[in-house]
Design a protein that fits this description.
Largest interface: A-B, 53 and 56 residues
Main location (chain A): membrane
Helix content of chain B: 25-40%
CATH topology of the largest domain in chain B: Rossmann fold
Order of helices and strands of chain B: HHEEHEHEHEEHEHEHEHEHEHEEE
Helix content of chain A: over 70%
Subcellular location (chain A): Cell membrane
Distance between the termini of chain B: 62 Å
Number of strands of chain A: 2
Radius of gyration of chain B: 24 Å
Oligomer: heterodimer
Membrane topology (chain A): Multi-pass membrane protein
Number of domains of chain A: 1
Number of helices of chain A: 14
Strand order of the largest sheet of chain A: 1-2
Strand content of chain A: under 5%
Shape of chain A: globular
CATH class of the largest domain in chain B: Alpha Beta
Number of strands of chain B: 14
CATH superfamily of the largest domain in chain B: Response regulator
GO molecular function, one term (chain A): transmembrane transporter activity
CATH architecture of the largest domain in chain B: 3-Layer(aba) Sandwich
Order of helices and strands of chain A: HHHHHHHEEHHHHHHH
Keywords (chain A): Cell inner membrane, Cell membrane, Membrane, Transmembrane, Transmembrane helix, Transport
Number of domains of chain B: 2
Shape of chain B: globular
Number of helices of chain B: 11
Strand content of chain B: 15-25%
CATH class of chain A: Mainly Alpha
Largest sheet of chain A: 2 strands, antiparallel
């Protein structure tokens, strides 16, 4: 019943907002970058090399989708980067090279991601700690806990079976040569995220981000929806960790800085800081655009050190442009 | 509705672009025609005299037992220690910079096992500075109040720890190892040949295995650390002299995923890369995997003595070399401390050999029972508690 109410109440407003913060701009930016790459490096569009790019971009796109749920409801999740590191380090320690443990450990990772998300959500909603503080605290807790548990350097090893998910794919696919598993996982996550946002849950989440009080008064279970958003972010971070660990192997640096890259991607995708507007498709396209931009910078011979400066510019510009467009 | 339409449009656009890119028969610009970025400016850490000395030291035959390189010394100048002579049992103290990476973890295990070999060491007190200068300074002060007979210091940074070491020198015999300090007050300073030799070993091998004009990609962990700067400085000298084309010098932060992305990008940008030089081996496997995943043969590469790289080298028959910064140097300070307390002469400075793993001796360092991040050049295989204490399976 509450679903029908919000279902009626929200679209009027979010439809209006969508015109301002839809995915149009990000598609234009993406098209420009794609065209630039087409000029500079036409072989980028060979199916195998394009798929290899998507494979590398998949973890960030998934993280951006997870971060979207949290941001659109008006919160932040700063803990995802350290959560990814923790997950990979835990996986290596538990698997320790034993192929038989691959799937059980992936289940443990998913469980750990859900649990961290749940704790973030409950602390934010029940104890009314601002999410910025909750997840910053969680970030520090995870960094410290992993450091203590491992004594400062990861031990154990991931099995080849575990690494397959992030590294390999279905071989011998006609025309594509290899269809990376990471791309399949990405497609699954994208469909799941888009479906969720088109369901009542998504509408409630948008309403909460727009005006939590109005959403609560119209019958939305605000605390529950915000908590679920954190849980989704945790779960998506776990999935990203499986792919990243597979792609690169165990390390302490695997998740470093990912929370900011994901937030940048979400902003770039036209999602409004503070919540209430923007689409998950936009957020994912934002991540894709960011990865394309990084690839382009590399092709142009721009040093990798500029990456974070570019990210900083994008965050500021995206928020500024969003504000100007909303005011006009 | 709007969202799904836009999404479908994007997919369609991407598909179109893909198809267009694939069906074009226009000859593409040859990416390998582009020139590399070169080696850039020489590091401000570069000191020509040190470079020359280290390059020469590589050819010096060490004195001491050849089956125990941790007791060997290169060009030793012995100093008298009679004034420190003391009857046992001893209280040995160690101020450790930290155990924040696998190299230090393996090394610290070596040291603990070395201590266990000597019953005359009654107490072994360790303070872990967790990679913080301020903590190490107070650690050293604390240890001095605990009645140590000798103090071993592995400094976190050179300049900042110098006054603390000087303060300790006034009270007990001090042995410094790994990174140095700017004072001669310690009884001895123990370390292997050094960063120039490490960097040169890898770079010389690669230039021999590449054709002239070939493209080498240099991967560094981070700038500004002396032991790593000297490695790159030596490689730069050799690359500049040899006429290879340095396609780029990139920082990886020691992150395998980042390393793999960087290498993949370079393969795309230049068509192929003919050699990989690394200032440390931790991400060598990730760099090699980038070639595998791109469907290209792995070019000549240098790693380090970590098991994951050695195993890959053996399995895939790589053209590779592994200069080492041997962890067996963690055994030497304990031996030195006991010699000093026994009034025997010790080498000062104590320059340890710095072995290199090549195809010829690779098989003796591959240890499938050890964890992937274990350092083979540990001199630990005969120590009590091996392999379990080092994380290995017996």
């Amino acid at each position: 019943m509450s679903a029908t109410e919000t279902g009626n109440a929200v679209p009027v407003r979010s439809e209006a907002r969508r015109g301002l913060t839809g995915i149009g701009p990000i598609l234009v930016i993406l098209a420009v970058f794609l065209a630039a790459i087409a000029v500079r490096q036409p072989e980028f569009y060979d199916p195998p090399s394009l798929l290899a790019f998507l494979k590398r971009a998949a973890p960030l796109v998934i993280l951006a989708a997870g971060q979207y749920f949290v941001i659109v409801a008006g919160d932040f999740d700063l803990s995802v980067g350290s959560l990814v590191t923790a997950e990979v380090v835990i996986a290596a320690r538990l698997i320790d090279g034993d192929p038989a443990l691959t799937w059980p450990v992936i289940a443990v990772m998913a469980g750990f991601g859900l649990m961290v998300g749940l704790v973030n959500g409950l602390i934010t909603t029940m104890l009314r700690v601002p999410s910025f503080i909750t997840t910053l605290g969680m970030y520090l807790i995870l960094v410290g806990a992993v450091y203590t548990w491992t004594g400062g350097s990861p031990r154990g090893a991931l099995s080849e079976e575990f690494r397959m998910l992030g590294r390999r794919g279905i071989e011998g696919v006609p025309y594509l040569q290899q269809l990376p598993y990471a791309v399949l996982v990405l497609a699954g996550v994208a469909v799941f995220a888009i479906t969720l946002m088109r369901a009542d849950f998504g509408k409630v989440l948008l309403a909460i981000g727009d005006n939590p009080r109005a959403a609560a008064l119209s019958g939305a279970r605000v605390a529950r929806a915000r908590t679920v958003a954190f849980v989704l972010s945790g779960l998506f971070a776990a999935i990203a960790a499986v792919l990243l660990g597979g792609f690169g192997g165990v390390s302490f640096q695997v998740g470093a800085g990912l929370e900011f890259t994901a937030i940048t991607a979400v902003m770039l995708g036209g999602v409004v800081l503070g919540g209430g507007a923007g689409s998950v498709t936009g957020a994912m396209l934002g991540a894709l655009t960011l990865e394309i931009l990084f690839t382009l910078l590399n092709l142009l011979g721009v040093s990798g050190a500029l990456k974070s400066a570019v990210q900083g510019l994008i965050i500021i510009a995206a928020v500024a442009v969003g504000n100007i467009r909303r005011r006009s | 509705m709007k969202i799904s339409t836009a999404f479908a449009a994007t997919i369609a656009a991407v598909t179109l672009l893909t198809a267009a890119g694939c069906s074009s028969d226009i000859p593409q610009t040859n990416p390998s025609a582009s020139k590399g970025a070169g080696t850039g400016e020489q590091s401000k850490f570069f000191v020509q005299a040190d470079y020359d000395r280290e390059i020469a030291l590589r050819k010096v035959t060490p004195t001491g037992p050849s089956d125990k390189p941790w007791e060997q010394a290169l060009d030793p100048k012995l100093v008298d220690t009679a004034k420190y002579k003391k009857a046992g049992p001893y209280h040995l103290c160690f101020s450790n910079a930290g155990v924040g990476n696998p190299w230090r973890q393996v090394g610290f295990k070596n040291m603990q096992a070395e201590v266990a070999l000597h019953p005359e060491i009654k107490t072994f007190t360790v303070a872990d500075a967790e990679s913080k200068d301020d903590k190490q300074i107070s650690d050293i002060t604390d240890l001095l109040g605990k009645g140590c007979d000798a103090l071993i210091v592995s400094p976190n940074t050179t300049a900042t720890l110098t006054p603390a070491v000087e303060q300790a020198c006034a009270k007990v015999p001090v042995i410094v190892f790994d990174r140095g300090v700017n004072t001669q007050c310690a009884v001895t300073f123990i370390n292997p040949i050094g960063g120039y030799a490490f960097g040169a070993d890898g770079a010389e091998f690669l230039t021999q295995k590449m054709k002239s004009g070939g493209k080498v990609l240099a991967l560094r962990i981070l700038p500004g650390v002396d032991v790593l700067e000297t490695r790159w400085a030596a490689a730069k000298v050799i690359f500049d002299k040899s006429g290879v084309d340095v396609a780029g010098v990139e920082f990886t932060d020691g992150d395998p995923a980042k390393t793999k992305s960087i290498v993949t990008n370079y393969i795309q940008r230049f068509g192929n890369i003919d050699a990989i030089w690394m200032d440390a081996g931790a991400t060598a496997v990730a760099a090699a995997e980038a070639f595998e995943d791109a469907g290209k043969p792995i070019p000549p590469i240098n790693g380090e003595d970590q098991q994951d790289f050695l195993k890959m080298w053996q399995d895939k028959k790589l053209t590779a070399i592994a200069p080492t910064y041997p962890t067996f140097q963690w055994r030497t300070p304990v031996i030195a401390a006991l010699r000093i307390l026994g009034g025997q002469q010790v080498a000062s400075p104590w320059k340890l050999p710095q072995p290199t793993i090549t195809d010829a001796n690779l098989s003796q360092y591959v240890q499938p029972n050890m964890p992937p991040l274990h350092y083979a050049m540990c001199g630990c295989t005969m120590l009590p508690g091996y392999p379990a204490n080092w994380g290995g399976k017996s």
